[in-house]
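WARN retry 2 of 3 for item q-0093 after timeout on previous attempt; input resubmitted unchanged.
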Amino acid sequence: MHDRAKVLAYHIQKERNLNNQKLDKRKLDEVTARRDASDFVNHAFGSQDYTHWATKLAEYDLRHPDTLRGKAAEKAAHLLSPNQRRWLNLGLFAPDWTISNIMIIGKFMTGTPKASKEIARRVFKGDWSSPEARDYVRAWQAYGNYAKNAGIINSAMWYTLTEMFTDEPADVESFMEFWETGRMNTGRGEVMVLSKQLAEPFHWVRHPSNTLMNKSSIVPKTMMEAILNKRWFTVKEGLPIGPRLVDDDGTTHFGEWAFSKGVPIVVKPFLQRDLDWDERFERVISGFFGFPQYHVPEK
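OK item q-0093 returned
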């Protein structure tokens, strides 16, 4: 299903690239349209062409062999080779998804200044600074449309769900809080994530160290939990905070902790003893459909 949707999205985006004449009557060539569409779809669906990255880095190293950047590019190209890349999964959880999620939003945000400058030149001077600039703006439009549509859809979902299922007011303050945290307050001491893909870029901005820790694989994360005596922990407040693996009275939670390492994250609410079974089932079902719920800890 995922692969078929990805291929369909690629063909739709390629046709849009070929037929996009809003900024310029001149059409893109087939090769550029395909390249831009494949890059966009790879970022949108969580996949990266590491071979292409490694080749580009190696080419940069050949052009600048004696510079610090050239030497760094050489090392990075070596790390992205198929034999070395498998070690990346020991340090990071789903690196393809993490990189793609940063790129799909980052391409729009970081590309906005250059694209705005080129669009202003096109409006006031009647032409692009170069054919490459025109192609750059067209590629940037895809990421801009993605961000715009994601913003509209998620805002509409937030308003509808807030009005229908919570006692919280759907006012400006709640709306800004939703966009700052990526979470909707359900009014029951819980929050719900409406779009994990859209929320994660905000997490990288607000809590980079905690987000990096969450994105680490099970190997370093389990080691850190054992060292810190935590079943899980967060560093949003600066120090590791979380339930103890061994309590002060000697009570241990090794079985539950070890079991949680081998089950999907969506099943973990079943292990939360402080919840009744109705609440556990509710959290599992909502998480399965992409809307995970979390308890808001008391400050």
